Amino acid sequence: MLRPLLAAAVVLSLAGGSAQAARCGGDFNTFVATMAQEAQAAGVSASVTSAALSGVTPDPAVLAFDRRQRYTFNKTFEQYVSTRVGPGRINGGRALLQRHAALLSRVEQKFGVPRYILVAIWGLESDFGKGDIGKMPVVRTLATLAHDCRRTDLFQGELLAALKIVQRGDLPLRDLVGAFAGEIGQTQFLPSSYIKYGVDFDGDGHVDLRHSIPDVLASTANLLHVSGFKMGQPYSEGTPNFEAMREWNRAVVYRKTIGYFADRLMGQ
């Protein structure tokens, strides 16, 4: 699956080379040592970089998955939605709408994004946090992808952002685990999105997108709000809200599935 901002960032990374891109390939340990120096120059402590990067090795499974990713959305909308939105997931989403009604009201009031869209994304990305949100060490995953020369600028930036999540104290290193492109948490944020849009909505001083439902829903709403999503406006294909959801996922079939799921949650 193309995760939040991943596809857009890919376009930017392919727009031109940089000093970072020139360092891809070659000896992996040398590459990692250079990234540690860059992280420290960006304000990450030596203790964090050492703990995160010492002994890290490339993961061949990550590269294999990355090369298969482009085939994920080679389905029609009807084929795709039939595998993602069924009666069980709809009923589960409706139950959570009731359970978290007060929280969702506060999120709606602050960010202007309807609860049905948020719960639909939550359900699609991780089955409302009950599904697989990834168990792979994010630092190893991103170091592997950054060392690979296909999209090195993108993933070097994501690796630095992941280290900043630890530096900020949002997640301890042992809890910095995710999916095959380094996505983290119940709505699968890339680290750069975690840093940019993450919201501490439960007030504990940390942005925890793995365990805190208030943080998960508020951060998801914040991303859409910043991208221009407007409460009370339609979100079908061709609308401004549909375009705003492009910042979440560029695939048309995925955005249509979000809208379809939201409509089912409303009983439409």
From TrEMBL:
Keywords: Signal. One of its GO terms (molecular function) is peptidoglycan lytic transglycosylase activity. Pfam families: SLT_2. The keyword Signal applies. CDD domains: Slt35-like (cd13399). GO terms for biological process: peptidoglycan catabolic process. It comes from the Bacteria. Gene3D superfamilies: Bacterial muramidase (1.10.8.350). SUPFAM superfamilies: Lysozyme-like (SSF53955). Residues 1-21 form the signal peptide. Residues 28-236 form the Transglycosylase SLT domain. PANTHER family: LYTIC MUREIN TRANSGLYCOSYLASE, MEMBRANE-BOUND LYTIC MUREIN TRANSGLYCOSYLASE B. This is Lytic murein transglycosylase. It comes from Bradyrhizobium daqingense.
